[in-house]
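Supplementary notes for students who missed Thursday's class. We covered one full example, reproduced here. Read the sequence, then the structure, then the short commentary at the end.
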Amino acid sequence: MNIRRILATTVAAAVTAPAALLSVSPAFAAEAKPAAQTQKSTFEELKKAAADAAKAYDAALAAHNDQQAVVSKLMKHDAPEAKPFRDAAAAAEKAKEAKAAGDQAVTEAKAKLAALPETADADEKAAAAKAVTDAEAAAKEAAAALTTAEAKKASEGDALDELRMAALRKANEKSKAKDAAEKAQKDADAALRSAKECVRLPALSAQLKGLPAQVVAGTSVDFSFQVHNGTDRTLDALHPLFFVHAAQAKAQWLDGSVWKELKDEPDYVASQSNVKPGSTVEVKIRLTVDAKSPATHGDALIAGDASDQYNPCIEGPMKGYKFKVLAAGSKPDGDTAKPGPTDGKDRPEPTAKPAGGGSTPTAQGGAAATPLKTTGTTTGATTGALASTGSSSAVPQLALAGGAAVVLGAGAVFVTRRRKAADRT
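Structure (token representation):
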């Protein structure tokens, strides 16, 4: 019993790390089978799984802490569950004292009998002998009572040990369940974080159609901005992202029958939902250059952002166009602007994802971008060949020195714009 008590006390001292207790690993664990192939979870499913895993961990942690409290209480000497053992131990101590007193009485009775003088009569001798016999009988009863009391103490001790060990085993189980729930929560959170990261899809391509390579001051030119879903998936939402800059110029986009002015910063226009594979979203753009504008140049940056049921942040390649602004009265050559070269290293890695779920994105400053009405259209196939951008893209490197700083600044704002929109998801 002492060994069991030492074991229980030792285990109790280590209860803060119960996973190491009372668990016996098999000599040879069964070989793990490969996990079955499962269908990819949607983003909403991953969000729910992460939320459920968090709740499960909270419940497992609470159960673990509750059981730790039970163990701590059971290990105390004054625990109610330990009273039968305490009573039995006290009874055994009294029986031990009674046995010692009985043995002492036998010793004293025998000493008195031996000390009788030779002159003692028969009655004195008989009385002394009887005293020894009576003392021995009482000592025998005390010894029997002590044996019974010690057996009771041992039995109650074993029962208390088993109660404590059962509580420790349960604490170990709760600790393992907590650890498993914690791992499940971390795995679910990691899967959700991974799904939140922006996905680059070169097949989500953008182009400007009809933007002249030369725009004469004092005139307006109309062209179209197209984003093509060249992927094999239906996009829950598609957000064309547009920016154009030229000195003393303004840009507008056609919302139904109304021309709406674009801000002098990257902005979403004509967001669409449920965009099928092979479809193209087209937005009409008008650029007007003031007649007093000097000969200079302008730049345009475009991209398509999107989301689907698996990825709340999908980014198409960014593309840049450059064009010249001619002085009033000049004659343009009639050529169209071409997309400039891109360098993927110039595009910072996004730290967040763009808006998804088919909702209308919020423009910088808090105003909601107006959904496409009649002019922005979604067609089943692209009209005109879309320029290939390769596997990655970045802010265009524009050669004209006078506009380089403007475009680089615009590119930084362009990326920031996408990040701010992403924070809403």
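Commentary. The chain has a mean pLDDT of 79. The chain has five helices and 14 strands. If anything here is unclear, bring it to office hours.
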